[in-house]
Amino acid sequence: MRVRPARLVEILPEAGVDLLLVTAPFNVRYLTGYTGSNGIVLLGERLRIFITDFRYVEQAAEEVDPSFERRRAPLELIESVADVLPGGALRLAFEDAHVSVRQHARLRELLPDDVELVGTEELVERLRMVKELAEVEAIRAASAVADAAFEQLLSEGLVGRTEREVALALEAGMRERGAQRASFETIVASGPRGALPHAQARDVTIERGELVVIDWGAELDGYCSDCTRTIATNGLGDQGREVYELVRTAQLAGLEAVAAGRSAREVDGVAREVIENGGYGERFGHGLGHGVGLEVHERPRLSQRSQDALEAGNVVTVEPGVYLPGELGVRIEDLVVVTEQGCEILTSSPKELRTVQ
Ligand code: ZN
Ligand code: ZN
C-alpha cells in the first residue's frame, strides 16, 4: 500500500499540479487503507496528510498507513484544507467527479489567492486500473465465495421460488462463506424480465421453461466480484437455446480477444461482431465489460466508446448479452485478469447451458 501514494506523486507533474486533494472514499481507501466514511487526503512530494473527524480518530489510527500524518478536523473536512497547506503559490488538484459545486465554492473562499484550484479527472482511478498481486488474490477469493454460493443455490432448484427468494438465498450463501455483503444488488430476472439488463428481483415465481438471468457478486475484504449466468428451467424452447448458444459463442470470442496491448474497443468489437452476425446486433445494447476492484464498476471500460487499452493486471468482465423485449434475455459474464498472453478467468461456474428443476 505504501507504494501507491508514491506512484501518485510521480504523476502529479504530468497533471501540472503540486498537490492533490483526494475526497472520493474508494480512492482514500486505496491510498491509505482507511475504510470509514469521512476521510480526505492531501498528497504532494513532501506532504502526506490524512484528515478525519472525531468519530473516526481511533479507526484511522488502526487503519491509515503510518506514512500519513493524521489530523482531526470538524465534520466538514474540506473546511480544514486551507489550514494544512504549506504557504506560497501552488496548484492544488481536486477530483472533479467527486467535489460538489458547493464544496468547490467553499474551498475557493477559504484558500489563499495564490492557491490555484485545478480539476483533475481520475488520477487515482488510473492507478487502480492495474491491480497488485494481493488485489488480484482478494478478487479471486471474492469470486470463489460467490461461485460456491451459486452452486449451492442451483442444487436447491429454481422453479417455484420467487426471484426475490433466490436473490436472498444467494446473498445469504455468500455471507455464510465470509462475504461482508453482496458487491451490488443481486439480479434475478426470469422469463421476459431477463430482457431488462438491470432488472430488480421481484416477488414473482420462477416457472418451468424459462431462462433466468442471475448476476451476482461478493464483497470480501473490500474487493468485489461480478459474474452472470443464465440458467434454464426444465422445458426450455428452441429460441432460448439458440440465443443462449449465440451469446456463449460471443462470450468465448470476447475472452479469446482479451490480452495486454489490445484496445478495449477492439475486444468489445470481437464479441459484438458474433452477435451481429447472428442477427441480434440491435439487441446487445451495452458495452462488453468493465473493470472490477474496490468498486464493482471501474475502469477500464470495454465498449465501442472506450479509449482504454488493456494492460496486464487489469481485472475486467466479459459480459455480452442479447435482450428480446417481452420474451427473454441472456447474459453470460466472466471476471478475468488480463495477462501479457491473454487472460486468466477467475469465475469458475460452467457455461454450457445448465437446466435445473
Ligand atoms: Zn454482473
Ligand atoms: Zn458486470
Produce the secondary structure layout:
Elements: H1 3-11, E1 19-22, H2 25-32, E2 39-44, E3 47-52, H3 57-63, E4 69-72, H4 81-84, E5 90-95, H5 101-110, E6 115-120, H6 123-129, H7 133-155, H8 163-176, E7 181-182, E8 187-190, E9 211-216, E10 218-220, E11 223-224, E12 227-233, H9 238-257, H10 264-277, E13 289-291, E14 298-302, E15 315-318, E16 321-324, E17 328-331, E18 334-338, E19 343-345, E20 355-356
Parallel strand pairs: 1-5, 3-4, 5-6, 12-20
Antiparallel strand pairs: 1-2, 2-3, 7-10, 8-9, 9-12, 10-11, 13-14, 15-18, 16-17, 18-19
The protein binds zinc ion (2 copies).
Protein model, in words:
The structure is a single chain. With 357 residues, the chain is of the alpha+beta class. The protein has two domains: 3-128, Creatine Amidinohydrolase, Chain A, domain 1, CATH 3.40.350.10; 130-356, Creatine Amidinohydrolase, CATH 3.90.230.10. Helix content is 32%, strand content 24%. It contains ten helices and 20 strands. The strands form six sheets. Strands 4-3-2-1-5-6 form a six-stranded mixed sheet. Strands 8-9-12-20 form a four-stranded mixed sheet, with helices on one face. The chain has a three-stranded antiparallel sheet with strand order 7-10-11. It is elongated and about 75 Å long. The model has no long low-confidence stretch (mean pLDDT 96). The protein binds zinc ion (2 copies). One zinc ion is lined by residues 215, 226, 228, 333. One zinc ion binds at residues 215, 226, 228, 333.
